[in-house]
Protein: Oxidoreductase
Organism: Mycolicibacterium fallax
Amino acid sequence: MNYPGSTVLITGASSGLGAEFAVQLAARGANLVLVARREGRLRELAAALAARHSITATAIGVDLAVPGAPRVLADALQDRGIAVDSLINNAGFGMVGDFAEADPDRLAELVAVNVAALTDLSRLLLPALLRSGRGMLLNIASTASYQPTPGMAAYGASKAYVLSLTEAIGYEARGSGLRVLAFSPGPTRTEFFDVVGGTEGAAVGRFQSAAQVVAAALAELDRTHRRPSVVSGRANAATAILARLAPRRFTLFAVARALR
């Protein structure tokens, strides 16, 4: 892909994979729109990347758990005269524990961010992305997309939705210049495990750094032959394939045991 002069919007950009996407894309010459709740951290990152790489970096503080937030974000882009060529839906979080014991409000926030906001923002920006024809729609799924995840039931279900939606959009966008990809990291050393409860016991698969995951995603986007979805890391990809081929009862048992 050709990044110089393009504009990429990244959600969840204040830390973790989102911040790493910003760092690596700025180094490739892309202009950035950084979106997250923590606007102070966004502004610091935007200023540093703009100075280092002579690109434009705009920070917009939006809480995607709030209903209607994607529309507010789209309106903010229009008000500022920002035309986006690429969208990376990276914002999301997980919860650990039995579904029956989950906090209902926190569960609603998970669905709002992982599912509703990703869907709404993709729909709002997709026509412009298709018209531009030079960028990407990159939705961050998870290795949890490939099987039910007892102990993280809602998270796994939300990421299965992301995988299915993105693959379908990619098929609908075939023939356009837009690159559509569902990218599924395995366990990644970010703040994710602090949010889900401060333990890496919720990890299933082989750990990678944020830099490794982002580099793999961008390498996939540079491929000539497009794939609708990719798992990050060979070991994680093998596990995802096995989960789909194994009897469902066995997969449920294995995942539940790993998470507990």
Remarks:
- The radius of gyration is 18 Å.
- The CA atoms of residues 65 and 136 lie 24 Å apart.
- The first strand starts at residue 7 and ends at 11.
- The domain at 7-259 is CATH 3.40.50.720 (Rossmann fold).
